[in-house]
Structures are given as structure tokens and as C-alpha cells.
Amino acid sequence: MQEQAIVKASISKQIAEQLRAAIVDGRFKIGERLPTEDELAQRYGVSRPSVREALKRLAAQNLVRARRGPTGGNFVVKPSFSDLAESLSGAATLLVGMGALDIEEIIEARRALQGSCMDLAVNHAQADHIEHLELTLARQQDPDISDEAFCQADVAFHRALVDATDNGMLRFVMYTIIEALIPVTNMVVTVVRERGDIISLHRQMLDHLKQGNAAKLQASMDELLDYLLRKFEQASEAQR
User: Fold this and answer.
1) 11-76, what's its fold?
2) Has this prediction a pTM greater than 0.85?
3) Which end of the chain has the lower number of beta carbons within 10 A, N or C?
């Protein structure tokens, strides 16, 4: 007799995985209410606490959100680009820490992928995009913010630049790139870079966007990436 593999995963984990698969393949639509805890418990033949734990797992993945009241329940939500990008950011940091990615590869990827956004950003940027970029740049100019806060403002600046493309698919792809690669780049070169240099290059990029000059915007982006690569090489030399 051929034995079947024993399922060791917890009941709530298995329920969460099945519900997640149903959401991903479209059986539950965005905004749709899931069956009640009682209905799910009967469907899977488990207790309500197991179902409740499964729903908590989905909520932690930003796939469902509970609403109170007579018309409440657990509803499928649209995950944000930022939420989806966080896992990739952690994976990229791990790969760099293990030596699977080097800074040259990261800079090359940013140059190719972020460069693809410049024309669209120039063509579609609206007043609210410009305002958001100004705000993130102002945060970077605060001399009292920590290195961590400065890096967060750096990420926010490049995300706002991608938002200006007004292209949902490109924003999703680029959010994962920005969330994954900018923090890694900052982590490597933060010791030797000068905030003023970064701010100056960001200011140039914003000015070129406001002027509608995609070529100069791209040139400033390349200058920023060249600067980061030089700073990394300086840091590496100092370590040696």
C-alpha cells in the first residue's frame, strides 16, 4: 500500500492558503464579502477558532479586512503596491547580505528600470505629483532627521516620481524595484554619501520634470546612480 504524505501544516494555515488561492484566481473578487466564520467552519469541517486564525493570516497579508456592523464581515481588499513590495525588499536585502547580488548589478538594474519611467513621468505629471515630490524633498532637507528617515524620504521621492507616470502596471513593477533596491543601495553607501549631494541631484530631477525635459531628467538620474556607485567604491576601498 502506498502511503500518502502526512500534512503537518496547521489547520488554520491550510484554510488560509485555500482562501488565498480563491482570492488570487478570482473566485472572490475585490470588495466581495467572504462567507461567515460559521459557513467557513462548516465548509472545511473545522472549529470557528481555526477559521478565525486563518482570516487573521489573510488580514496580515493585506488580502482581507474585517468590518463591523450589520453589513459587516470579512471583505477582500486590493493590496497596495507598497504592501506587495515589502516582501521583495526583504528578499533583496537578504540576497545582498549573502553576497548573491552586488552593488554594480543593483545600480545597473535601477538605471535600466527607472530610466524607463522618465518619458511617461514628464508626459503625465500633474500638480499633485509635483507637490508630493516637493514634500518628500523638503523632508530630506531637514538637517535633524536620522539616516533611517532620510532613506525613507529617498524611497518616497522615487516612488512619487513613478506615480507621475500614471501607469498602474508600471507603478506596481517599479514599486517592487524601488522598495527592494533603494534601501539596499542606501544601506551599502550611507556611511560615505553626502546628504547635500543627494538632495541637489533630487532637486535637479524635480526641476527637469517640472520643465518637461525627459532627457535631462534621465541624465540627472544617471548622475545620481553614478554618484552612488562611486561612493560604494570609496567605502569598499576604505574597508580594504
Assistant:
1) Arc Repressor Mutant, subunit A (1.10.10)
2) no
3) N
